[in-house]
Design brief:
Elements (H helix, E strand, L loop, with lengths): L12 H5 L2 H10 L2 E6 L3 E6 L2 H8 L5 E2 L35 H10 L4 H5 L2 H15 L4 E3 H6 L1 H10 L12 H8 L10 H20 L5 H6 L10 H14 L2 H16 L11 H15 L8 E3 L3 E3 L2 E3 L4 E4 L1 H4 L34 H18 L4 E2 L6 E2 L8 E3 L1 E3 L2
Parallel strand pairs: 2-8
Antiparallel strand pairs: 1-2, 3-5, 4-12, 5-8, 6-7, 9-12, 10-11
Amino acid sequence: MTCPFAGPDIVSREHKRDPFSFYARLRAEAPIARVTVPRLGDAWFLTRQADVLACLMDDRHFVRDPHIAALDIASDPDALLVLPHPSIGPTLLQVDDPTHKRLRMSVVKGFTRNAIEKWRGQSETVAEKLLDRMAERAEVDLVTDYARPLPLAIISAMLGMPVENGHELPEWYQIFLSQSEQPGGLSSASFWSAFEGWAQQLFQARRAAPLDDLASVLACSGKAGEGLDEHEFVAMVHVLLFAGHETTAALIASGVLVILENSIAIDKFFDNRDLYRRAIDELLRFCAPVEMVPPRFVAEDVVIDGQLLRRGDIVFPVLASANRDQARFTEPDRLNLERDPNPHVAFGAGSRHCFGLHLARMEAEVAFRSLFRRFPRLSLHPNAPPVWRPRHVVRALDSLPVRLG
């Protein structure tokens, strides 16, 4: 057995600030390396893009259900890094085909490019309202005041949540918005019970009288026996509402950070749709809001680039590293908002590539354009540095203090 590669605590704030130097070292010295991961133990890290793609495109050898790989780690709700509360049960992120394909087909029709474009106007309205509130102060935290609430408000509206009338929001949602970690907060059984009850009622309501929203798409998907049942609907809403906004929020905040750090005049891209999309794709590549995909488990012995991976091994395809691979990118460590082509894998690849990519791109376009047009003199706070969030999988800021003018 290969010894674990000596490296940093990959969940620490310091690592999140700059994970790229560690991954550059791995690509050079041990592109397929064993690294110690908190809660999971030793796992294989794939750091070159070719190896990352080989894993992501191979659903036979690399699975998401650990039991298929003869592993029993699901007893720890946090061990799989993407599990909700045990009462919710497994989600789209924890199952394999044919269940995965059926669940995915129930939701993708609500995330096509045309379906997402219908929400652009409301996204712009939400952004302007958030900016109006920010304008009342000279200094704000861009994460809590803008990057998080914008995508959260949009996915909430898509699911039929009355975001325009805060007093009508369910109590569990108010707790979620406050990010409370005190007794009675997000970790409590009562919180999850209240969420589950609300989602069940939403399922029944949309089944009985569908509306023009994503909740209706999910509740009425497919023929009898092919769409989502009530339990699966609750799990899917959990993924979309609680997890679906987080990576876009991470992209918005970290994108603003690198734009300000590099003194980039991003406004020059706003009036050219193609250039603007290139800029968003480069921020996705450069900032790595999804540092690595949730773990894959080896179902059968397999060899990647000469390295034997055995049944039961845990594997992390590291997107943040694949997107800085010098074999795929010229000057990979330089931010180039006009980069073309840009073969990044920020949305993954294969049958599990992110179906929310059109929503993420649209929200990012709206977020950057609205912010920098309203506050062209936006700057980092000189006395309050950014704070990174210590967690798995996602690379996100907890705080980004800025001055508006």
